[in-house]
Amino acid sequence: MKYVEINNLYKSFGDSVAIENLNLSIEKGEIFGLLGPNGAGKSTTINILCNILEKDRGSIKIDNKELKKNDRETKGKLGIVPQELAIFEDMTALENTMFFGSLYGLNGKDLKEKSLKALEFVGLENTKKLSKTFSGGMKRRLNIACGIVHNPELLILDEPTVGIDPQSRNHIMKSIKTLNTNGCTIIYTTHYMEEAETLCKNIAIIDKGKVIAKGDKESLKSIVSNKNKFEVLVDDITIISESDLIEINGVDSVEFKENKIYISLDREVSSLNKFITYISSKDVKILDIKSQVLTLEDVFLNLTGRKLRD
Ligand SMILES: Nc1ncnc2c1ncn2[C@@H]1O[C@H](COP(=O)(O)OP(=O)(O)OP(=O)(O)O)[C@@H](O)[C@H]1O
What we know:
By secondary structure, the chain is of the alpha/beta class. The chain has helices at residues 42-49, 72-77, 93-103, 108-121, 136-148, 166-181, 193-199, 217-224, 242-247, 272-281, 296-304, and strands spanning 2-13, 16-27, 31-35, 57-62, 65-66, 78-81, 154-158, 185-190, 202-207, 210-216, 227-234, 251-257, 260-266, 286-291. It has a six-stranded mixed β-sheet, with helices on both faces. The longest helix is centred in the middle third of the chain and has 16 residues, at 166-181. It starts with a strand and ends in a 6-residue tail after the last helix. It binds adenosine-5'-triphosphate (ATP). Adenosine-5'-triphosphate is lined by residues 13, 16, 18, 36, 38-44, 83, 191. Residues 4-233 form the ABC transporter domain. One of its GO terms (molecular function) is ATP binding. Keywords: ATP-binding, Nucleotide-binding. Pfam families: ABC_tran.
């Protein structure tokens, strides 16, 4: 079931077009990745989704309802974790989450309980200090707690891991997975393709305000190639026959160099197992396998001639 439907969304700032007839649909319960380089239009798209910015034209439906200004019911279903930290530095973590919870209409015991739960979720439940004393990663985690305090059905995260240490990054990635497992639909914008690969099932790659490719990871990669390539180091290559290998279903090409086999396999056929079984049957030891599996970076490079990150 579709939870978010964006049709022909258009937004310009003066002469500069930020979003040009963007179409996206996001399924209920998925983590959807919006991947693109700086200036691609990710923040503009999600700021329109959250009613922070007004669109020029196009339509947005959330949970089958056209998004309108000041729609309290839809607002209550959304949680936003903005790219710029939206926390009050002179308040504690709990004061922050309680403030944001109250904006969503929570109050009394419910507000305190949900605020504490959100802090526990991001691992900040025992922090009593003012937020200005927090590390960058802790501030980012608090930013997330403020966005989830009211248990949103749809959580939109705008580059939530920019400029933080690997430990906080891992914590955030894990939290997002758990939120999703608990039923929250998530839109995750990033220019880190590794994050999109790890978290998201479906991804839209945007560039210069346009969707240049969308689909699940495998279909995006098949834009570039439908082959996976491996470099396999063996202890004795002389026992192996190139013609036997090429006979294996799904093997596209084979090349021998010194004690290495360079093999290209059809992505749709699981032939790696058969290849390994063949090598083992010859009593040859595999010393190392290096995968040259395609990444979303390759897809972006192929489509635009540029890298995601300069
Ligand atoms: N308030 C604004 N006024 C003028 N131009 C803007 C404004 N906001 C965004 N833009 C322009 O719109 C385009 C899309 O910007 P946007 O911030 O949506 O990109 P992004 O993909 O989120 O990039 P980043 O990762 O750098 O935030 C850019 O060319 C940007 O300069």
